């Protein structure tokens, strides 16, 4: 390890669609990353199995993690996020949470943790969605409060939360731009294998504007999480968003 700058990464939700991808991408980049822990649900059917298939050093999936790390990336469930917080606090490690649908109580625990460690809550880690959020804020400001904003989001049939964390983030961006938003303006579709689609529609008298983001592969979220994680480990304790990361280091 001498001379190399490893990030020692723990992934919580390592048996899931996103967690597996994060393990796989980090595991394949041995110059920069070492996956030291892969945590899944205590009754996961993948316990004891390798966390990724490329590379020689894949840790097996375990129900908890007791070793050393400097970054925890979480794509799991609210219970998994609690585990991620405990690991990160114990280790003084940076924590990136991609899990969506978190209850208010967990968000408060994250905010409290951010006084001791760098925490980034990212309902969407793609650069394209971060760009869309900026455009939505700009459009809401330019089109004015009389313009009606509607958000339509579509996801695969396994997605547990609705509306999506991304839709809520985009609604917050519209509010930042001065638009009035209520829950009835967000519409959720579930079915098939849709990775993620978000349409933000601004309707005025005589014209409408649409901003659309379509994710065609989950890899974009996993890559974005690793990129943000690399940035996060260099930050002091605090509560960050993906927009902080992108504006601070466009090519991080
Ligand atoms: N931020 C983003 O860009 C982004 C992108 C995509 C998805 N997401 C969000 O990320 C989360 C995961 O999505 P996914 O599609 O990967 O879902 P998934 O395939 O259902 O994976 C969730 C994983 O979490 C594990 N888990 C459940 N409870 C746990 C616990 N207590 N401790 C540790 N692990 C636990 C599950 O383990 P077992 O099933 O093995 O029991 C499962 O493998 C969701 O909230 C989703 O909305 C965010």
Characterise this structure.
The protein is α/β, with parallel strands linked by helices and 252 residues long. It folds into two domains: 7-121 and 219-248, NAD(P)-binding Rossmann-like Domain (Rossmann fold); 127-215, Dihydrodipicolinate Reductase, domain 2, CATH 3.30.360. It is built from seven helices and eleven strands. It has helices at residues 17-28, 78-91, 104-113, 127-143, 165-176, 219-232, 242-248; strands at residues 7-12, 33-39, 61-62, 71-74, 94-97, 118-121, 148-155, 186-190, 196-204, 207-215, 238-240. A seven-stranded parallel β-sheet has the order 3-2-1-4-5-6-11, sandwiched between helices. Strands 8-7-9-10 form a four-stranded mixed β-sheet, with helices on one face. Strand 9 and strand 10 form a beta hairpin. Helix 1 packs across helix 6, helix 2 runs parallel beside helix 3 (104-113) and helix 4 (127-143) packs parallel to helix 5. It is globular and about 60 Å long. NADP nicotinamide-adenine-dinucleotide phosphate is lined by residues 12-13, 15-19, 39-41, 44, 46, 75-77, 79-80, 83, 98-101, 122-125, 159, 161, 221.
């Amino acid at each position: 390890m001498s001379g190399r700058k490893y990030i020692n990464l723990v992934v919580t939700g390592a048996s899931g669609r996103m967690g597996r991808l994060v393990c796989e991408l980090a595991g394949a980049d041995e110059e920069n990353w070492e996956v030291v822990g892969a945590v899944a649900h205590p009754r996961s059917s993948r316990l004891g199995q390798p966390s990724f298939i490329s590379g020689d050093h894949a840790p097996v999936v375990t129900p908890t993690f007791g070793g050393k790390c400097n970054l925890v990336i979480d794509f799991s469930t609210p219970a998994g996020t609690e585990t991620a917080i405990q690991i990160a606090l114990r280790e003084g490690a940076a924590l990136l949470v991609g899990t969506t649908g978190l209850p208010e109580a967990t968000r408060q625990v994250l905010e409290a943790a951010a006084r001791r460690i760098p925490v980034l809550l990212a309902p969407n880690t793609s650069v394209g969605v971060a760009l869309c959020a900026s455009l939505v804020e700009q459009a809401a400001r330019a089109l004015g409060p009389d313009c009606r904003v509607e958000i339509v989001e579509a996801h695969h049939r396994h997605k547990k939360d609705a509306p999506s964390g991304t839709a809520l983030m985009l609604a917050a961006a519209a509010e930042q731009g001065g638009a009035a938003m209520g829950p009835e303006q967000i519409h959720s579709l579930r079915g098939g294998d849709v990775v993620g689609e978000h349409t933000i529609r601004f309707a005025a008298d005589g014209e409408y504007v649409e901003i659309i983001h379509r994710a065609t592969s989950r890899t974009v979220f996993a890559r974005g999480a690793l990129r943000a994680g690399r940035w996060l480990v260099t930050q002091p304790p605090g509560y960050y968003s993906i927009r902080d990361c992108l504006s601070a280091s466009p090519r991080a």
